[in-house]
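Bump. Still looking for Thioester reductase (TE) domain-containing protein structure tokens.
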Amino acid sequence: MIQNENILITGLTGYVGSNLIKVLLEDDSTKNNNVYALVREKSSHSEFIKELIEKYKNFNLIIGDFVDLQSSVTSQSKCIEFLKSIITNNQIKVIIHLASMMDFYPRNSIDYSNIHKTNVIGTENLLKASCTSTILNSSPKMNSVNNNNNNINNNNINNINNINNNNNNNNNNNNNNNNNNNNNNNNNNNNNSSLIRRFIYCSTTETMGGKKPITGIPLSELDDPYSHPSYYYGETKRLAEDHVRRYEKKYGLDTIILRPTGIFGKDDQFSIFELIQSVSYGILFFIPSFANGNIMYTHIDDFIQSIMLSIHKEKLATDDTDGLPHTYIISPDKGLTYKEAIIFLNEKLNRMKPRLKLPASICFPAIRVLGLLMYSFSSRKPFLFKAATLSAMEEDRIYSNERAKRELGFKPQYTFKQGLNVTIEEYLENERIGYYSVSPLFIFTTIVLLIIKFLIL
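Sorry for the wait, here they are.
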């Protein structure tokens, strides 16, 4: 990477962004670079951001957004103008697009629309702003994105579904076209009209989904044409990937797409934290009889490593041209079966080793009731205690990182089990979870039974 290049990052206040920013500002390879973070107004006054502004002279805050959720899909021009002004006025050369809306179980049409706009339209807005050929006539002021009071167009949902259907039908053709044109996607592309040096897009292995029947064989980028997202979130990220590749092909935009598995580690708030917390409470004292699949999550430190490598990577003619161009699965070397993961977590947290196997006829009704109770009194987005999540235990969700190792120089520090071990130690040290000598669920159940017995007598 050329020294003193300016970097723009989206998703600063998310889990990955909040872990990446200090590395960007302190690592020897990037500490001399100016880093600009695009942050929404409502998130701009946090203590975390105040600390960054006070501590780092090369940190720059820009208040605004990369997508206008209140406008229609086709009315994003002011947002694109705003983004282009950020890029040109600050001479941005690298964009790291982390921001997305991750919701595996949208509740209504507005949720679906917002997920699509954020993940698909927002990504295309940034791509358009990065290319000279898409410059719009008027010049915006450097302030937050103009939000109007237009109602969300419910017809967008139908459009979204049509796009997704067309996307699934054309995946094979798109991949073949990508392969055939891969050699034209380097910096020497004759159609190069990009304003920046590199666009790094954070995608997800949810673009590929799980695999059934279970084989224990990791999915790779070569399996992409034969895989399908399991959730709408994955569908939108797949559509966004298509936009990234299209802008590379059409405008010579230098892009890298990273596909991490689920990410976890210190201060994580999502699925792994929810899983560990549940085991700590004594809720997962059993093994679902159908939990035969394999799973892997990536430790946050390993994913940050992949982003830093992507900033500096020199694209070579010897890069793999058989799969999707410069698309890399980021994962540990080794995963676990669901059974192994549940047993390990119980033992690590001083719970009894689960020996009881419960059939689907018991597990699914129980998880529905438990999920209703858990999510009715919490602002947390539902995931773990959902029947669809439970049924995913019948699938393999393990992936190959061989291409990332070969082309990026990626070297994961943790297997999934090692990452879990380190993360639990951090949770215990920071008292995010309790180390109970007796299961709270066992205590609660005992009290309830004693009360019932007392009332009967």
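The chain has 15 helices and 13 strands.

Edit: fixed formatting.
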